Amino acid sequence: MIDLRSDTVTRPSPAMLSAMVSARTGDDVYGDDPGVNALEAEAAHLSGKAAALFLPTGTQANLVALLSHCQRGDEYIVGQQAHNYKYEAGGAAVLGSIQPQPIEAAEDGTLPLEKVAAAIKPDDMHFARTRLLSLENTFGGRVLPVAYLAEAWRFTRERQLALHIDGARIFNATVALELPLSSLSCYCDTLTICLSKGLGAPVGSLLCGDADYIQRARRWRKMTGGGMRQAGILAAAGSYALENNVTRLQEDHENARWLAEQLQALGITVSQHTNMVFAQLPPEQVAPLQAWMRARNILISAAPVTRLVTHLDVDRAALQQVITQWKAFLAAQ
């Protein structure tokens, strides 16, 4: 099966599974699982932050991040299409009584700072207290410019806001920019990193920040049900991913670029950013194309704008099959 629906569908490699099987474990709630401790220490080192916390999912990592920044009645400013606003079931509002203030992102994925400034509430009892700016990097595969991150950092310092980065795919950004993670994470107070997307781990995310913040986050992780026990088995996959699967993300970017070129040669309007290709389809082709591909063991989430995501389980030969079948589909129309 060739699966281009997302990079969340990756499966652990034999080498990663071997690392998991041989992992030493303790009890992470007691803080004595050596695998979790090593993973958190490595994430803190790579991000240049004082501490890190291992969580089961990216959604929980973002929720805990917001709960640790904001109190009931506080507000965070976020993109209208941001994952931690639109795609995480309203968790911050429902579980934390934290009000989101969404604004439209620019074409490059940035939140225009003049719009952010206009959205900040006055210090008045009628309004929620604006505490946090949340950005997403990458956003729709787009890498946020370093100059923008630096400007956003200065902006939040001037306005006494914290700055959080939903960095689910931030290593795609570092690879595209050929920079270490610390060169991006230096422009935020906190960031999340997803291990189960392009990095290929079966589960897990990391939240990085200063020591006091991570201590608060550890309590919120427990309260929201994320305190795992012998989690070193899972942490071993994350450590393997950080050691072996970061630089190889460049292959995904190159494969996505190749796929975009091939689709464009078929007359399809496409855009491509890092490991994501967006193909524009006539509405009448959406359902038939999805069924055609599914019948040929190719999974896509067809839509008027179809997102195709490359990852470590899809090589160039598999993408060639996708193009062959797409050509056949168009010929049969």
Automatic annotation (TrEMBL):
Pfam families cross-referenced by the UniProt entry: Beta_elim_lyase
Q: How does it assemble?
A: Homotetramer.
Q: Which GO terms describe its biological process?
A: glycine biosynthetic process; L-threonine catabolic process
Organism from which the protein derives: Mixta intestinalis
> Which gene codes for it?
ltaE
The entry's family comment says: Belongs to the threonine aldolase family.
One GO CC term, this protein = cytosol
Per its record, how is this protein called by name?
Answer: Low specificity L-threonine aldolase
Lineage: superkingdom: Bacteria
Q: What class of enzyme is it?
A: lyase
Single GO term (MF): L-allo-threonine aldolase activity
Q: What is its EC number?
A: 4.1.2.48
Please list the coiled coil stretches. Answer: none
Would I find Lyase among this entry's keywords?
yes
Aromatic amino acid beta-eliminating lyase/threonine aldolase domain span: 3-279
Give the NCBIfam families listed for this entry: GntG_guanitoxin, PRK10534.1
Q: Name any cofactors this protein relies on.
A: pyridoxal 5'-phosphate
Do you know which SUPFAM superfamilies this protein is assigned to? PLP-dependent transferases
| Keywords, comma-separated and alphabetical | Lyase, Pyridoxal phosphate
Q: Which residues carry this modification: N6-(pyridoxal phosphate)lysine?
A: 197
